Queue: 3 jobs
Job 1
Amino acid sequence: MKLYLTPHACSLAVDIVARELEVPLDLEWVDVRAKRLRDGSDYFAVNPKGQVPTLKLPDGQYLTEGPVIMQYLADLRPKGGLLASVTTLERYRVLEWLNFISSELHKGFTPLFRATTPAEYRLIARQNVQGRLQWLNDQLAERDFLTGPTFTVADAYCYTIVMWTKLHDIELTPWPHLKAYVGRIAARPSVKAAEQAEREAKAAA
């Protein structure tokens, strides 16, 4: 299978999950702004949305949307323990987190990435993000990961989005539980390998 991704994007979460599960993926780096692949071809031909991540399946079909791709990979390797089995409440707790991260945290950062966002609204967006980070910090006061003692696909996604604080000069110091959580995840071999792949891709661009 092939994963289309770009540095500093939510596609990092999918790469982390694949490495956790030892699912081999070919990485295809995308210039998301230009909508081009490294060979100059049109990325819209792969994903009409023009976004990453996209996963090319063995039969040639494409699967999009990070949270969905992560669920797909986790279900390929159920013994990996990144997503509980269907009908269990544990699974729906992870899905609950995936939806929160996608709708509240991920999208909360979006205005900060847009050059066209007015300065007044940029301040509001920043305050909204900080409010969500505070809430996350409170949830992590007595647990190692989002749903308890076990790392799941939701943690891969959460870590990836929280790391965007570095791109916008938001210090995690006010949220010690969140900062410790990020540190725990950053130490995982899968995360180190995925981030190293990003650095190499960025250097080669």
Job 2
Amino acid sequence: MAVDIYGDAGPPVLLLHGIPGDKGIWAEVAARLRHCQIIAPDLLGFGDSSEPEGDPHAAGQAAMLAALLEQLGMRSVHVVGFDFGGPVAVLLAARYPNLVASLTLAATNVLVDTPIPCPLHLVRPPVAGDLFAHMFFSRPGLSGMWLGAVARRQSFPFSAYRRMLHSAKGVRWTRKIFQMSLRDLPGLYAPVQTALSGIRTPCQVLWGERDPFFSRATGERTARLIPGAYFQILPGTGHFLPAEDPDRFAAAIAAIASQGTSGDVWQW
């Protein structure tokens, strides 16, 4: 598992990217968290990390991250999960609670019954579903996502988004994980949704005001299922919050990471 580490002092923050994507999406957020130690890995199958040999979905990724944190000597980190990083972060918090000091979920699906756009139902059947998956989640198909998903296009231009699709391996695993998810939402996401009620660390849920994939109602419901979670909308943003509004995103992480390490009081 390839990992970028920024800084060597301050509260440690683990940043988990979404799909499509890699650890590069965190560059602007990390630059604004100078008083934190940032750990930004490529999830298995993405960026410079190896392809997964076992479970490539959230549970397998969480187990590998726990091993990574042990290897790095990290006893407790503030975990941030964006998009697919969200269910990974939830299972990391649920199965390795001593490793997680706080949890931030951003523009993610951690629920079994989140509405799925009608065209994506086409990827579920065998054989024919594979053909539609290759069409929707090819590099051209994923490139078109930028038009609908990004609201602040000056902050996250197409050239930066396109960079996330440079890796054929990352595109392939984006397709595989999307298709796995759509074909077995109950099996893969029921453990994630069930885990929400058991989270006992401080938690915040960040959402894009103009996210076309996950509605505000989905974000609010996610926060309600986590005891004491705080919900925050980032105005004017679409789905790719870390790249569209790194200032507000980093400020939210700094606030929750400062709990217990400064005189600030975190309200949740």
Job 3
Amino acid sequence: MSALTFSLKKPLQFAINCAALTPDALAKRTFNQIAAIPLYHGKQAVRVDELFDISGHDSASLRFLNATHQLDYLGANLRSGRIDISGDAGAYLGFGMKGGEIHCLGNTQDLAACNMQNGLMVIHGNTGDFLGGAAAGLRKGMLGGTVVVKGHAGDRVGDQMRRGLILIEGNAGDYCASRMLAGTIGVLGKVGAYAGFSMHRGTLLLTTQPDLHPTMQACGSHTLPFLNLLFKSFAPYSQAFASLKTLRAARWLGDAANKGNGEILIIKNF
């Protein structure tokens, strides 16, 4: 069966909340019922078929064509199935995601994978601030799952992250791994200022030396054989990370203001 496909008819004037369009939510709906689902921008509602041309039948696999940055909450609370986005995605991509897969071929706005619990998200372009972080008013960021960004990420990657894996093949902005509680974040490019700020636990894996704040403590350079296994474990998600070979790393602990149990590993030739 062909994937259930939503092709955006024309550019949007306002951002639209698309949380209702997931494989889980559409599994038992007929074609006409799906077409009549109301989507909201503010307090205003508009039918799905007023915004999208709809085709296909397999609701376990959704496709969004001509997607733009005004499609918010795509894949929110996804539990199973797959969503493919041809174009850009708005804010809160995969909010509260609990399973399944999301693949975005373009860029995303802020708060992608926020409060994510499980599943796989792959962003082939760039993403905004608070990737894998916590939505406003919540104290827990990403709780599990895997996020791969082929491009660059904004500020506060993994803010309040508690579990899971984030791999960024490009650069990341300021405050990467801020307030991180557990999990692993890898960045192949450069990171901005204050990496690991207020970090409690977890691992930040870097390939370039950032400007670290004074409460991050240098622990010297080490040969760490487990890195070979770690890099191999990345192979299903990112060949760029899987191709890393060095076992040497400069290790920093911190944030000392929060008991100093987090670590930053900077891998390069020493």
